[in-house]
Amino acid sequence: DVKVTQSSRYLVKRTGEKVFLECVQDMDHENMFWYRQDPGLGLRLIYFSYDVKMKEKGDIPEGYSVSREKKERFSLILESASTNQTSMYLCASNRDSRYEQYFGPGTRLTVT
Amino acid sequence: ELKVEQNPLFLSMQEGKNYTIYCNYSTTSDRLYWYRQDPGKSLESLFVLLSNGAVKQEGRLMASLDTKARLSTLHITAAVHDLSATYFCAVDIFTGNQFYFGTGTSLTVIP
User: Fold this and answer.
1) Which of A12, A41, A65, A104 has the largest count of CB atoms under 10 Å?
2) Could you give the CA distance from residue B45 to residue A58 in angstroms, rounded to a whole number?
3) CB-CB neighbors (< 8 A) of A98 in chain B
């Protein structure tokens, strides 16, 4: 079975802090994705990566950056957390675009 | 910009009844995915529909895809409480790896 893991299930940070969310997949998938999920807005893509060191902006990249130094690991970075970044963050991966994405358990981030 | 619309957004139905959730999208695609999300949990893949006319069934759920109408349906037969969850459709377009998700349909099955 594909397994996508995220470093934290719950995280509380203060405004202005730098925040790292990590995601690891164990199926040698090429593509990895970061979404945020907010009530009434569904899932919105922040960034995705189709190869090591490669990244593409999604629909809402502002205030975020990403890093993919190894194929299995994709990190989301909030350079200076703000309260409007309080959300559920979901990581996903897939082999290529013809296949469904597999999701991690999510990280619920609260910025106070 | 691709838009993916689901309706209804909220659905409350009695056990034993049938219902259909609709997913409309605004641009050409022949790849559509259905996911289920339980409260506080992540998304679980239900169906992958990869061509016009594709139909997949699993238990009480059946999904279909009409690429000409840009429409997918998720049909629920004889609902049971265990089907209570939020259901998302997602569309993949040809130019890249990006999925576009609908806003979800929150289904509650009442005994």
Assistant:
1) A104
2) 21
3) 31, 50
pLDDT for the residue numbered B30: 75
Q: Which of A42, A94, A97 comes nearest B102 by C-beta?
A: A42
pLDDT at B27: 85
How many Å apart are CA A12 and CA A86, to the nearest integer? 9
The CA–CA distances, whole Å, from B94 to B55, B98, B100 equal 21, 9, 12
A79 CB-near residues (< 8 Å, 6+ apart) = A18, A63, A64, A65
The C-alpha atoms of residue B43 and residue B75 are separated, in whole angstroms, by 19
Q: Are B70 and B93 in contact (CB under 8 A)?
A: no
Kindly state whether A39 is in contact with chain B, defined as any CB-CB distance less than 8 angstroms: no
> Exposed (0-12), middle (13-18) or buried (19+): which is A56, by Cβ within 10 Å?
middle
A81, A64 Cβ separation under 8 angstroms? no
The verdict on a CB contact (< 8 Å) between A100 and B45 is: yes
Amino acid at B95: T
| Mean per-residue pLDDT over chain A, rounded | 93
Which of the residues in chain B have pLDDT under 50?
A: none
> Position A8: which residue type?
S
Say which amino acid occupies B39.
P
